[in-house]
Amino acid sequence: MNETAKTEYGWNPDIPQALHAKLKEDLKTAMRTKNTQVRDTIRQIMAEFPRLTVPLTLESGKKTTRLKTAEEITDDDILGIIQGLVKSEKTVLEAKKEATSEYLEILNGYLPKMANREEIIAWIKNNIDFSQYKNRMQAMGTIMKHFGKQVDGRQVNQILKDWS
Questions:
Q1: Distance of CA 126 to the CA centre of its chain
Q2: What is the predicted pLDDT for the residue at 5?
Q3: In this structure, which long-range contacts are made by residues 71-79, counting pairs with CB atoms below 8 Å and at least 24 apart in sequence?
Q4: Does the pLDDT value for residue 1 go beyond 50?
Q5: DSSP secondary structure string for all residues of 16-60
Q6: 3-state secondary structure of 92
Q7: Average pLDDT in the 32-45 region?
Q8: Residue range 15-39: average pLDDT?
Q9: Which of 16, 91, 133, 159 is the most buried (most CB within 10 A)?
């Protein structure tokens, strides 16, 4: 992927614009510039929006769901979709024995910078008192709540297992 495409498309939490609005803007730009790879990637992300639902309880007591409106879709909802697509693409690339793809690079452009192992360990040392927990794994919820979508749960799990 060329360098201009990397800077032209993408998102991070420091941008004052919502991710949903940024995706729409980037889709328009990609269509105008005839960048089919970016266009198709953003369309793939947006095609997952109907999976975002809100639980409802009807007057009869029956539980159901309805689709989220565009205003109800949060950045975290979209980041969850993108992370799912990244995970799926990595599985496909692993099967093909390839390292990366342009599709994966575009998806990663919309994800926030992931916290590295050292950052996670430093935060745990400064903020977690393991004496409050029966075992170290119980601290995982607190850690995941703090970092949110910026860490992979498997990585946190491994750090806690390796903790000495």
A1: 26
A2: 42
A3: 73/20, 73/49, 75/13, 75/18, 75/19, 75/20, 76/148, 76/149, 77/52, 78/19, 78/20, 78/23, 78/45, 78/110, 79/19, 79/110, 79/111, 79/112, 79/149
A4: no
A5: SS-HHHHHHHHHHHHHHTT-HHHHHHHHHHHHTGGG-EEEEE-TT
A6: helix
A7: 96
A8: 93
A9: 159
